Amino acid sequence: MSALLETQNLKKYFKTSRGLLHAVDDVTFTIQKGKTMGIVGESGCGKSTLGRTLIHLLESTGGRIRFEGRDITSVSRRELKKLREEMQIIFQDPFSSLNPRYTVEKAIQEALRLTGRYSPSQIPKETDRLMELVGIDQRLRTSYPHELDGGRRQRVVIARALAPNPKFIVCDEPVSALDVSIQAQVLNLLQDLQENMGLTYLFITHDLSVVKHISDDICVMYLGQMVETSPSDELFTMPLHPYTKALLSAIPTIDIHTPMENIPLEGELTSPVDPQPGCRFAARCKYVCEACGKPQQLEELRPGHFVSCCRAKELNM
Ligand SMILES: Nc1ncnc2c1ncn2[C@@H]1O[C@H](COP(=O)(O)OP(=O)(O)OP(=O)(O)O)[C@@H](O)[C@H]1O
């Protein structure tokens, strides 16, 4: 296995009238080639900002990003153009990523043209290939986005993302706006594409049952920080951080093999503006103690399973 994307203490802060908002704060992880890293956490914990910062839609405030072993933290305009092809993003709302005046065919052709790799005579054939790859019926080539259901619209968005032949795709809540039955179809498509094309995904969602289905590894974020990361199965059978346990307790239907303590998630997220040092979950944690006021270290308690909680060992071992 080799790493496709690595971050080291990645930070993205926003200047606001209230102070410096720490949207992403010291996030360190590695995504292996051909694998999926799921990112979970409540709304506002920094998932989308992380995804956008990784692919340079936002400029990082600090830390490092490596892609295929190269440091891509700061890149020239020319390198950025190439990176933008290798790293794509799919958003939750396909409507916002599709031009309402473009038919399916035109939307895909435009994405192909932008790559600059195809001659005008090659584009129709490539369009057919992409439509087939994402499972859009040829009869829909002249349909407009508003004439398609959400699942088909998302397939068009995926076809456009595939046009430059990317290696890495940030999937930002790609099925959250879809009916459950259609969600499964789009997730299966993403998995098939991954298998056939060796794609690597960062899969952002607030829905734990979705992330469990699709991820190899999962990273749990809380107020801009990574509080736990682990192989997917283990996160569900043996969560170590009180916040992860609380998130899992909130979904009664999830298939958890080991009986687990039920921890209700109470209280609201505290402000991400000028946060205090120490554990950001402390204000909502029933295990809070004096040591939680100090900066927490990410510690590997089991192979590949890291947690940032000074009481994790004592509470779980
Ligand atoms: N451009 C911006 N300027 C200022 N603050 C921002 C900006 N973009 C995001 N934020 C703030 O950064 C924090 C993280 O937001 P982000 O959208 O990344 O979270 P999220 O986990 O993806 O949430 P959601 O699931 O609701 O999309 C939030 O407090 C948000 O208000």
UniProtKB/TrEMBL annotation:
Protein's UniProt keywords contain Transmembrane: no
Record keyword Transport present: yes
Gene3D superfamilies: P-loop containing nucleotide triphosphate hydrolases
GO biological process, one term: transmembrane transport
Domain ABC transporter: from-to ranges: 5-248
GO molecular function: ATP binding; ATP hydrolysis activity
Alphabetical UniProt keywords: ATP-binding, Nucleotide-binding, Transport
CDD domains recorded: ABC_NikE_OppD_transporters (cd03257)
SUPFAM superfamilies: P-loop containing nucleoside triphosphate hydrolases
Taxonomy, superkingdom: Bacteria
UniProt family annotation: Belongs to the ABC transporter superfamily.
PANTHER family: ABC TRANSPORTER, ATP-BINDING PROTEIN, TRANSPORT ATP-BINDING PROTEIN
This protein's name: ATP-binding cassette domain-containing protein
Source species of the chain: Diplocloster agilis
